[in-house]
Amino acid sequence: MEVQVSFSSDGEAVLGVLHVPDRAPAPGLIMCHGFTGHKGEAHRLFVEAARDFCSHGMVVLRFDFRGSGDSAGEFRDMTVSREIADAAAAFEFLASRSEADAERVGVLGLSLGGCVAACLAGRESRVKALVLWAPLAQPRRIQELMAPELGSDEVFDMQGWAVGRGLLDDARDLEPLKEVQEYHAPSLVVHGTEDEAVPPSDGSDFRIALGGLCRLHLIQKSDHVFSSLAWKAEAIQVSREFLVESLGPASVD
User: 213, 187 in Cβ contact below 8 A?
Assistant: First the structure.
């Protein structure tokens, strides 16, 4: 069953889709999309992943960060810290649902959403499984890449996206590799070897920061968002197997 849901983050509406398995309460998962992405993601990556995970006994919440997709807010106000706050609100929302086992909730993030997921996992002790897809380890790169274009302006037109100065200032100060070291449960990093948006070395950096409970899975020749049927299937399968192993099956009545 798939249900449209909404919840609040700092007083603004966040919209999402909740995938509910036949048996509940079930292990839970929130999914954090990437920069300029949305809750469906490229080539319906998040839709297909959520449906797959749900078919294997997980209740899954995929949602739009504020300023993205169908959620309230403006993209020009988007910062990584705001997205971490949204992810924390999503975690609270899912953990409060009767369909979810609040003791078994994980987080998955893609690209910048991987950075968000890593920071949330470092701050939220209830996260029991962490999956990072092509995660950005050095958000200050955003500042380095866009600051020259922004100049003295408060908003930069990035192919129709209004990128605000707040994002650049915020990204400069974040240290996800340091924050994620506070997370001590199982984790998985999945990265394409031919990723040109976020180098595979970022995935390796997260693997090192996460330590012995982390697995690194490289998808040979894959790009940033696993944009072939084979790459997508591999990313979903290895993640599902990890999540089922780490979070366990749905409760048996």
Answer: yes
Distance CA 51, CA 47 (A): 6
160 CB contacts (<8 Å, ≥6 apart)?
none
Q: Mind listing the pLDDT tens digit for each residue in 28-77?
A: 999 999 999 999 999 999 999 999 999 999 999 999 999 999 999 999 99
Write the pLDDT tens digit of every residue in 84-108.
999 999 999 999 999 999 999 999 9
Cβ-proximal residues to 118 (8 Å cutoff; 6+ apart), any chain: 109, 130, 132, 135, 176, 177, 179, 180, 183, 206
Q: Are 200 and 218 in contact, with CB atoms under 8 Å apart?
A: yes
Whole-model pTM over 0.90? yes
User: In this structure, how many other beta carbons lie within 10 angstroms of the beta carbon of residue 185?
Assistant: 16
| Structural domains for the chain | 2-139+174-247 (3.40.50.1820)
CA geometry: angle 45, 249, 237, nearest 5 deg: 30
* Rounded Cα distance, 122 and 114, in Å: 12
* Beta strand pairing call for 155-158 and 100-110: unpaired
* Whether the Cβ atoms of residue 125 and residue 211 lie closer than 8 Å to each other: no
pLDDT of residue 251: 64
Q: Which residues in the chain land under pLDDT 50?
A: none
Contact 214, 187 (CB under 8 A): yes
Alpha-carbon torsion angle 242, 245, 250, 253, nearest 10? 170
